[in-house]
Write a structure and sequence with these properties.
The chain is an alpha+beta fold and about 450 residues long. The chain folds into two domains: about 210 residues, 3-Layer(aba) Sandwich (D-Maltodextrin-Binding Protein, domain 2); about 190 residues, D-Maltodextrin-Binding Protein, domain 2 (3-Layer(aba) Sandwich), CATH 3.40.190. The chain is built from 16 helices and twelve strands. A five-stranded mixed β-sheet has the order 2-1-3-12-6. It has a three-stranded antiparallel β-sheet with strand order 9-8-10, with helices on one face. A two-stranded antiparallel sheet has the order 4-5. Helix 1 packs antiparallel against helix 12 and helix 15 runs antiparallel to helix 16. The longest helix is centred in the N-terminal third of the chain and has 17 residues.
Length: about 450
Protein backbone atom coordinates (compact mmCIF):
# COMPACT_ATOMS: atom_id res chain seq x y z
CA UNK A 1 0.00 0.00 0.00
CA UNK A 2 1.47 3.32 -1.01
CA UNK A 3 1.31 5.74 1.91
CA UNK A 4 0.52 8.78 -0.17
CA UNK A 5 -0.19 11.98 1.74
CA UNK A 6 -2.59 14.42 0.15
CA UNK A 7 -2.20 17.56 2.23
CA UNK A 8 -5.22 19.85 2.19
CA UNK A 9 -4.96 23.48 1.14
CA UNK A 10 -7.22 26.46 1.72
CA UNK A 11 -9.12 27.50 4.84
CA UNK A 12 -11.96 25.19 5.76
CA UNK A 13 -14.33 27.29 7.81
CA UNK A 14 -16.53 24.52 9.17
CA UNK A 15 -14.92 24.61 12.59
CA UNK A 16 -17.35 22.26 14.27
CA UNK A 17 -16.36 19.46 11.93
CA UNK A 18 -13.10 19.15 13.81
CA UNK A 19 -15.02 17.84 16.77
CA UNK A 20 -16.96 14.62 16.54
CA UNK A 21 -19.93 13.42 18.61
CA UNK A 22 -22.50 10.38 18.48
CA UNK A 23 -24.96 7.59 19.94
CA UNK A 24 -28.24 5.77 21.10
CA UNK A 25 -30.04 2.29 20.80
CA UNK A 26 -31.72 -0.51 18.15
CA UNK A 27 -32.53 -0.70 14.27
CA UNK A 28 -32.84 2.07 11.68
CA UNK A 29 -33.99 1.04 8.28
CA UNK A 30 -31.08 -1.14 7.88
CA UNK A 31 -29.77 -3.38 5.31
CA UNK A 32 -28.06 -6.23 6.99
CA UNK A 33 -29.37 -6.53 10.53
CA UNK A 34 -29.45 -10.30 10.09
CA UNK A 35 -26.15 -10.57 8.26
CA UNK A 36 -23.56 -13.06 9.47
CA UNK A 37 -21.19 -11.72 12.12
CA UNK A 38 -17.68 -10.53 11.36
CA UNK A 39 -15.40 -11.50 9.70
CA UNK A 40 -18.13 -12.14 7.15
CA UNK A 41 -18.43 -8.83 5.31
CA UNK A 42 -20.64 -6.89 2.96
CA UNK A 43 -20.88 -8.94 -0.17
CA UNK A 44 -19.06 -11.84 1.53
CA UNK A 45 -17.98 -14.71 -0.68
CA UNK A 46 -20.37 -13.51 -3.36
CA UNK A 47 -18.26 -10.44 -3.97
CA UNK A 48 -16.37 -10.43 -7.25
CA UNK A 49 -12.79 -11.63 -6.98
CA UNK A 50 -11.77 -9.24 -9.72
CA UNK A 51 -8.80 -7.13 -8.62
CA UNK A 52 -9.93 -3.65 -7.61
CA UNK A 53 -8.40 -0.56 -6.04
CA UNK A 54 -10.27 1.50 -3.46
CA UNK A 55 -9.46 5.10 -2.59
CA UNK A 56 -10.03 6.07 1.04
CA UNK A 57 -9.89 9.66 2.30
CA UNK A 58 -9.76 10.87 5.89
CA UNK A 59 -8.36 13.66 8.07
CA UNK A 60 -6.58 13.44 11.38
CA UNK A 61 -3.32 13.66 13.26
CA UNK A 62 -0.35 11.38 12.58
CA UNK A 63 -1.42 8.77 15.12
CA UNK A 64 -4.78 8.38 13.38
CA UNK A 65 -3.06 8.12 10.01
CA UNK A 66 -0.65 5.45 11.22
CA UNK A 67 -3.27 3.24 12.87
CA UNK A 68 -5.69 3.58 9.95
CA UNK A 69 -3.03 2.59 7.42
CA UNK A 70 -2.18 -0.41 9.61
CA UNK A 71 -5.85 -1.47 9.70
CA UNK A 72 -6.14 -1.06 5.92
CA UNK A 73 -3.07 -3.24 5.44
CA UNK A 74 -4.78 -5.91 7.54
CA UNK A 75 -7.85 -5.63 5.29
CA UNK A 76 -5.66 -6.14 2.22
CA UNK A 77 -4.22 -9.31 3.74
CA UNK A 78 -7.71 -10.69 4.35
CA UNK A 79 -8.94 -9.63 0.91
CA UNK A 80 -5.88 -9.82 -1.38
CA UNK A 81 -7.89 -8.94 -4.49
CA UNK A 82 -8.60 -5.48 -3.02
CA UNK A 83 -5.88 -2.84 -2.84
CA UNK A 84 -6.47 0.30 -0.81
CA UNK A 85 -5.01 3.66 -1.74
CA UNK A 86 -5.01 5.92 1.35
CA UNK A 87 -5.35 9.68 1.00
CA UNK A 88 -5.08 11.56 4.26
CA UNK A 89 -4.41 15.04 5.56
CA UNK A 90 -4.88 17.40 8.43
CA UNK A 91 -8.35 18.86 8.92
CA UNK A 92 -7.64 22.25 7.43
CA UNK A 93 -8.72 22.18 3.78
CA UNK A 94 -10.20 18.68 3.96
CA UNK A 95 -13.73 19.62 2.94
CA UNK A 96 -12.47 22.07 0.34
CA UNK A 97 -10.65 19.14 -1.26
CA UNK A 98 -13.63 16.80 -0.96
CA UNK A 99 -15.95 19.41 -2.47
CA UNK A 100 -13.68 19.73 -5.50
CA UNK A 101 -13.57 15.96 -5.91
CA UNK A 102 -17.34 15.58 -5.64
CA UNK A 103 -17.91 18.41 -8.12
CA UNK A 104 -15.43 16.79 -10.51
CA UNK A 105 -17.03 13.37 -10.21
CA UNK A 106 -13.88 11.73 -8.86
CA UNK A 107 -14.39 11.54 -5.09
CA UNK A 108 -12.82 8.60 -3.19
CA UNK A 109 -14.81 5.39 -2.81
CA UNK A 110 -14.91 5.72 0.99
CA UNK A 111 -14.38 8.96 2.89
CA UNK A 112 -14.66 10.47 6.34
CA UNK A 113 -17.55 12.83 6.93
CA UNK A 114 -19.47 14.31 9.88
CA UNK A 115 -23.14 14.63 10.74
CA UNK A 116 -22.83 18.41 10.45
CA UNK A 117 -22.46 18.23 6.65
CA UNK A 118 -24.02 14.86 5.84
CA UNK A 119 -27.30 16.39 4.66
CA UNK A 120 -25.42 18.80 2.39
CA UNK A 121 -23.61 15.99 0.60
CA UNK A 122 -26.66 13.72 0.55
CA UNK A 123 -28.85 16.43 -0.99
CA UNK A 124 -26.27 16.83 -3.77
CA UNK A 125 -26.48 13.13 -4.61
CA UNK A 126 -22.91 12.46 -3.51
CA UNK A 127 -23.61 9.67 -1.01
CA UNK A 128 -24.59 6.05 -1.56
CA UNK A 129 -27.49 4.57 0.39
CA UNK A 130 -25.68 2.06 2.61
CA UNK A 131 -28.90 0.08 2.95
CA UNK A 132 -28.23 -1.18 -0.59
CA UNK A 133 -25.17 -3.03 0.74
CA UNK A 134 -25.01 -6.10 2.94
CA UNK A 135 -23.52 -4.44 5.97
CA UNK A 136 -23.55 -6.32 9.25
CA UNK A 137 -25.16 -3.86 11.67
CA UNK A 138 -26.67 -6.44 14.00
CA UNK A 139 -24.65 -5.15 16.96
CA UNK A 140 -25.19 -1.45 16.23
CA UNK A 141 -28.06 0.17 18.09
CA UNK A 142 -30.94 1.88 16.34
CA UNK A 143 -30.18 5.37 17.58
CA UNK A 144 -26.65 5.25 16.21
CA UNK A 145 -27.89 4.14 12.80
CA UNK A 146 -30.52 6.87 12.73
CA UNK A 147 -27.81 9.52 12.91
CA UNK A 148 -26.83 8.62 9.35
CA UNK A 149 -30.32 8.74 7.85
CA UNK A 150 -31.31 11.21 5.15
CA UNK A 151 -34.85 10.86 3.76
CA UNK A 152 -34.94 7.31 5.20
CA UNK A 153 -31.71 6.36 3.41
CA UNK A 154 -28.60 5.38 5.36
CA UNK A 155 -26.04 7.81 3.95
CA UNK A 156 -23.42 7.68 6.70
CA UNK A 157 -22.21 5.22 9.32
CA UNK A 158 -20.51 6.56 12.46
CA UNK A 159 -16.99 5.30 13.03
CA UNK A 160 -17.48 5.91 16.73
CA UNK A 161 -19.64 7.46 19.41
CA UNK A 162 -18.45 10.54 21.26
CA UNK A 163 -19.32 13.97 22.59
CA UNK A 164 -17.96 17.49 22.84
CA UNK A 165 -15.74 18.31 25.79
CA UNK A 166 -13.00 20.49 27.16
CA UNK A 167 -9.57 18.95 27.51
CA UNK A 168 -7.89 20.73 30.41
CA UNK A 169 -4.40 20.88 31.86
CA UNK A 170 -4.94 20.55 35.64
CA UNK A 171 -1.33 21.54 36.35
CA UNK A 172 -1.78 24.95 34.70
CA UNK A 173 -4.99 25.57 36.64
CA UNK A 174 -3.18 24.62 39.85
CA UNK A 175 -0.29 26.94 38.96
CA UNK A 176 -2.83 29.76 38.61
CA UNK A 177 -4.21 28.97 42.06
CA UNK A 178 -7.54 27.58 40.84
CA UNK A 179 -9.21 24.64 42.53
CA UNK A 180 -10.85 22.52 39.86
CA UNK A 181 -14.40 21.22 40.11
CA UNK A 182 -16.29 18.81 37.89
CA UNK A 183 -17.81 21.66 35.93
CA UNK A 184 -17.79 25.46 35.85
CA UNK A 185 -20.79 27.71 35.34
CA UNK A 186 -20.34 30.28 32.57
CA UNK A 187 -19.55 32.98 35.15
CA UNK A 188 -17.08 30.72 36.95
CA UNK A 189 -15.39 29.83 33.67
CA UNK A 190 -14.97 33.52 32.84
CA UNK A 191 -13.50 34.25 36.28
CA UNK A 192 -11.16 31.25 36.14
CA UNK A 193 -10.01 32.17 32.62
CA UNK A 194 -9.19 35.71 33.72
CA UNK A 195 -7.28 34.43 36.76
CA UNK A 196 -5.23 32.06 34.59
CA UNK A 197 -4.29 34.88 32.22
CA UNK A 198 -3.30 37.16 35.11
CA UNK A 199 -1.37 34.57 37.12
CA UNK A 200 0.49 32.91 34.24
CA UNK A 201 1.51 36.20 32.68
CA UNK A 202 1.94 37.68 29.22
CA UNK A 203 1.27 35.29 26.36
CA UNK A 204 -0.97 33.02 28.44
CA UNK A 205 -4.75 32.91 28.21
CA UNK A 206 -7.51 31.20 30.12
CA UNK A 207 -9.15 29.99 26.92
CA UNK A 208 -9.18 30.45 23.16
CA UNK A 209 -12.03 32.64 21.89
CA UNK A 210 -14.82 30.28 20.82
CA UNK A 211 -17.23 32.96 19.63
CA UNK A 212 -16.94 31.53 16.12
CA UNK A 213 -17.46 27.86 17.01
CA UNK A 214 -20.80 26.45 15.77
CA UNK A 215 -20.83 23.58 18.27
CA UNK A 216 -20.33 25.95 21.19
CA UNK A 217 -23.06 28.21 19.84
CA UNK A 218 -25.44 25.26 19.47
CA UNK A 219 -24.61 24.11 22.99
CA UNK A 220 -25.36 27.59 24.37
CA UNK A 221 -28.71 27.68 22.55
CA UNK A 222 -29.64 24.20 23.77
CA UNK A 223 -29.11 25.45 27.31
CA UNK A 224 -31.73 28.10 26.55
CA UNK A 225 -34.15 25.43 25.29
CA UNK A 226 -33.40 26.25 21.65
CA UNK A 227 -31.06 24.90 18.96
CA UNK A 228 -28.86 26.09 16.12
CA UNK A 229 -31.31 24.98 13.44
CA UNK A 230 -35.07 24.54 13.32
CA UNK A 231 -35.83 23.01 9.95
CA UNK A 232 -35.00 25.47 7.17
CA UNK A 233 -34.39 28.36 9.55
CA UNK A 234 -32.35 29.21 12.60
CA UNK A 235 -33.60 27.99 15.95
CA UNK A 236 -32.75 31.13 17.91
CA UNK A 237 -33.26 34.89 17.80
CA UNK A 238 -30.98 37.89 17.38
CA UNK A 239 -31.02 38.64 21.12
CA UNK A 240 -29.83 35.09 21.88
CA UNK A 241 -26.92 35.45 19.48
CA UNK A 242 -26.00 38.88 20.84
CA UNK A 243 -25.84 37.37 24.34
CA UNK A 244 -23.46 34.65 23.13
CA UNK A 245 -21.29 37.17 21.27
CA UNK A 246 -21.21 39.48 24.30
CA UNK A 247 -19.92 36.72 26.58
CA UNK A 248 -16.93 35.87 24.39
CA UNK A 249 -16.32 39.51 23.50
CA UNK A 250 -16.01 40.25 27.20
CA UNK A 251 -13.53 37.43 27.76
CA UNK A 252 -11.38 38.58 24.86
CA UNK A 253 -11.38 42.25 25.87
CA UNK A 254 -10.50 41.38 29.47
CA UNK A 255 -7.53 39.30 28.32
CA UNK A 256 -9.11 36.09 29.61
CA UNK A 257 -9.51 34.76 26.06
CA UNK A 258 -6.86 34.89 23.36
CA UNK A 259 -6.87 37.95 21.06
CA UNK A 260 -8.24 37.84 17.53
CA UNK A 261 -4.94 37.34 15.73
CA UNK A 262 -4.17 34.26 17.85
CA UNK A 263 -7.69 32.82 17.83
CA UNK A 264 -7.78 33.05 14.04
CA UNK A 265 -4.91 30.57 13.87
CA UNK A 266 -5.88 28.18 16.68
CA UNK A 267 -9.60 27.69 16.01
CA UNK A 268 -9.08 26.08 12.60
CA UNK A 269 -9.56 22.61 14.05
CA UNK A 270 -5.90 21.57 13.70
CA UNK A 271 -4.96 19.95 17.01
CA UNK A 272 -1.28 20.75 16.58
CA UNK A 273 -2.02 24.50 16.64
CA UNK A 274 -3.96 24.57 19.90
CA UNK A 275 -2.71 26.78 22.72
CA UNK A 276 -2.81 23.93 25.21
CA UNK A 277 -0.09 22.12 23.23
CA UNK A 278 2.38 24.94 23.88
CA UNK A 279 1.17 25.49 27.44
CA UNK A 280 -0.29 28.93 26.67
CA UNK A 281 -3.80 27.94 27.81
CA UNK A 282 -5.13 25.15 30.04
CA UNK A 283 -8.23 24.66 27.90
CA UNK A 284 -9.15 23.37 24.46
CA UNK A 285 -12.49 22.46 22.94
CA UNK A 286 -12.50 19.05 21.26
CA UNK A 287 -14.39 15.85 20.62
CA UNK A 288 -13.93 13.26 23.36
CA UNK A 289 -12.33 10.92 20.82
CA UNK A 290 -9.49 13.43 20.37
CA UNK A 291 -8.21 13.25 23.95
CA UNK A 292 -5.52 10.70 23.08
CA UNK A 293 -4.16 12.72 20.17
CA UNK A 294 -4.26 15.95 22.16
CA UNK A 295 -2.52 14.43 25.15
CA UNK A 296 0.17 13.00 22.88
CA UNK A 297 0.75 16.40 21.26
CA UNK A 298 0.83 18.20 24.61
CA UNK A 299 3.10 15.49 26.03
CA UNK A 300 1.52 15.69 29.47
CA UNK A 301 -1.49 14.44 31.37
CA UNK A 302 -4.80 16.07 30.42
CA UNK A 303 -8.31 15.61 31.78
CA UNK A 304 -11.73 16.01 30.21
CA UNK A 305 -14.38 18.36 31.54
CA UNK A 306 -17.96 19.19 30.65
CA UNK A 307 -18.61 22.57 29.08
CA UNK A 308 -19.95 25.30 31.41
CA UNK A 309 -23.44 24.98 32.82
CA UNK A 310 -25.99 27.78 32.58
CA UNK A 311 -27.54 28.84 35.86
CA UNK A 312 -31.25 28.14 35.57
CA UNK A 313 -30.71 26.69 32.11
CA UNK A 314 -31.11 23.26 30.55
CA UNK A 315 -28.43 20.68 29.81
CA UNK A 316 -26.72 21.46 26.51
CA UNK A 317 -24.59 18.36 26.07
CA UNK A 318 -25.58 15.38 23.94
CA UNK A 319 -23.93 12.23 22.66
CA UNK A 320 -23.75 11.74 18.93
CA UNK A 321 -21.48 10.77 16.05
CA UNK A 322 -18.86 13.02 14.62
CA UNK A 323 -16.28 11.17 12.58
CA UNK A 324 -18.22 8.89 10.26
CA UNK A 325 -17.84 7.08 6.93
CA UNK A 326 -19.74 7.51 3.68
CA UNK A 327 -19.42 5.78 0.30
CA UNK A 328 -19.38 7.83 -2.89
CA UNK A 329 -22.56 7.46 -4.92
CA UNK A 330 -20.56 7.13 -8.16
CA UNK A 331 -18.06 4.61 -6.81
CA UNK A 332 -17.27 1.92 -9.37
CA UNK A 333 -16.54 -0.46 -6.50
CA UNK A 334 -19.38 0.16 -4.06
CA UNK A 335 -19.59 -3.50 -3.04
CA UNK A 336 -15.91 -3.63 -2.13
CA UNK A 337 -16.14 -0.24 -0.39
CA UNK A 338 -18.98 -1.75 1.64
CA UNK A 339 -16.77 -4.70 2.51
CA UNK A 340 -14.14 -2.31 3.81
CA UNK A 341 -16.68 -0.29 5.80
CA UNK A 342 -18.04 -3.50 7.31
CA UNK A 343 -14.49 -4.56 8.17
CA UNK A 344 -13.72 -1.26 9.92
CA UNK A 345 -16.97 -1.58 11.88
CA UNK A 346 -16.86 -5.23 12.91
CA UNK A 347 -13.39 -6.78 12.61
CA UNK A 348 -11.94 -7.38 16.07
CA UNK A 349 -8.31 -7.26 14.96
CA UNK A 350 -8.92 -3.95 13.22
CA UNK A 351 -10.74 -2.63 16.29
CA UNK A 352 -7.74 -3.34 18.49
CA UNK A 353 -5.55 -1.37 16.07
CA UNK A 354 -7.95 1.58 15.78
CA UNK A 355 -8.89 1.75 19.46
CA UNK A 356 -11.19 4.68 20.20
CA UNK A 357 -9.41 7.25 18.03
CA UNK A 358 -12.62 7.97 16.12
CA UNK A 359 -14.82 7.49 19.16
CA UNK A 360 -16.19 4.60 21.19
CA UNK A 361 -16.84 1.74 18.69
CA UNK A 362 -20.47 1.52 17.56
CA UNK A 363 -20.61 -2.30 17.62
CA UNK A 364 -21.52 -3.65 21.06
CA UNK A 365 -19.58 -6.83 20.32
CA UNK A 366 -16.48 -4.83 19.39
CA UNK A 367 -16.76 -2.61 22.49
CA UNK A 368 -16.88 -5.68 24.70
CA UNK A 369 -13.98 -7.36 22.91
CA UNK A 370 -11.58 -4.41 22.95
CA UNK A 371 -12.37 -3.15 26.44
CA UNK A 372 -9.54 -5.02 28.13
CA UNK A 373 -6.95 -3.92 25.57
CA UNK A 374 -7.71 -0.20 25.67
CA UNK A 375 -4.95 2.31 26.27
CA UNK A 376 -5.14 4.51 29.35
CA UNK A 377 -6.37 7.46 27.27
CA UNK A 378 -9.00 5.35 25.52
CA UNK A 379 -10.24 4.16 28.91
CA UNK A 380 -10.45 7.82 29.91
CA UNK A 381 -12.63 8.45 26.88
CA UNK A 382 -14.91 5.48 27.61
CA UNK A 383 -15.31 6.66 31.21
CA UNK A 384 -16.14 10.21 30.10
CA UNK A 385 -18.83 8.94 27.72
CA UNK A 386 -20.31 6.92 30.60
CA UNK A 387 -20.40 10.05 32.76
CA UNK A 388 -21.84 12.14 29.94
CA UNK A 389 -24.61 9.61 29.40
CA UNK A 390 -25.92 10.48 32.87
CA UNK A 391 -26.63 14.11 31.91
CA UNK A 392 -26.86 14.14 28.10
CA UNK A 393 -30.07 15.26 26.44
CA UNK A 394 -31.41 14.00 23.07
CA UNK A 395 -29.37 14.62 19.94
CA UNK A 396 -30.59 17.33 17.55
CA UNK A 397 -31.84 16.27 14.11
CA UNK A 398 -29.12 16.24 11.46
CA UNK A 399 -28.33 19.69 10.19
CA UNK A 400 -30.18 20.91 7.07
CA UNK A 401 -28.72 21.55 3.61
CA UNK A 402 -26.87 24.85 3.75
CA UNK A 403 -25.61 24.26 7.31
CA UNK A 404 -22.00 24.35 6.16
CA UNK A 405 -22.50 27.74 4.51
CA UNK A 406 -24.15 29.05 7.66
CA UNK A 407 -21.23 27.86 9.77
CA UNK A 408 -18.80 29.57 7.39
CA UNK A 409 -20.89 32.73 7.68
CA UNK A 410 -20.59 32.54 11.47
CA UNK A 411 -16.81 32.42 11.20
CA UNK A 412 -16.66 35.34 8.78
CA UNK A 413 -18.95 37.58 10.81
CA UNK A 414 -17.43 36.78 14.21
CA UNK A 415 -13.96 37.52 12.88
CA UNK A 416 -15.18 41.03 12.10
CA UNK A 417 -16.33 41.34 15.71
CA UNK A 418 -13.07 39.92 17.04
CA UNK A 419 -11.04 42.39 14.99
CA UNK A 420 -13.46 45.18 16.06
CA UNK A 421 -14.66 45.94 12.56
CA UNK A 422 -18.30 45.32 13.53
CA UNK A 423 -20.31 45.83 16.68
CA UNK A 424 -22.17 42.97 18.32
CA UNK A 425 -25.68 44.21 17.48
CA UNK A 426 -24.81 44.76 13.82
CA UNK A 427 -23.05 41.40 13.54
CA UNK A 428 -25.90 39.49 15.18
CA UNK A 429 -28.50 41.11 12.93
CA UNK A 430 -26.46 40.43 9.80
CA UNK A 431 -25.93 36.80 10.73
CA UNK A 432 -29.61 36.13 11.44
CA UNK A 433 -30.70 37.67 8.13
CA UNK A 434 -28.08 36.05 5.92
CA UNK A 435 -28.21 32.64 7.62
CA UNK A 436 -31.97 32.35 7.19
CA UNK A 437 -31.62 33.39 3.54
CA UNK A 438 -29.08 30.61 2.97
CA UNK A 439 -31.26 27.96 4.62
CA UNK A 440 -34.43 28.99 2.82
CA UNK A 441 -32.68 28.98 -0.56
CA UNK A 442 -31.89 25.26 -0.34
Amino acid sequence: MGKKRVWGTGAAMMLSLALAAGCSSGNAGTGGTTAAPAPSTAGGAAASQKNVELRVLWWGTQDRHDMTVKALELFEKKYPHIKVKPEFSGFDGYFDKLNVQVSGGNAPDLFQITYQVMNDYASRGALLDLNTLKLNLADVDEGTRKIGLYQDKLMMLPAGVNTSAFAIDPALFQKAGITLKNRFTWNEFAAASKQVAEKLGKGSYGTPDYMNNPDMLNYFMRQKGKSFFNGKKLGFEQADLAEFFTYWDGLRKSGAAAPAEISASVTSGELEKQLIVSGKSPVVLLGSNQIGSMQSLANRELQMMLWPSMEGGKEGHYISAGVSWSIYQKSAHAKEAGMLLDFLTNDLEAAKILGANRGVPISAKVREAVGSSLSATDKKQFAFIDEMAKVATPFDPNQPPGAGEVQSLLVNITQQVQFEKKGIAEAAAEFITKANQILQSK
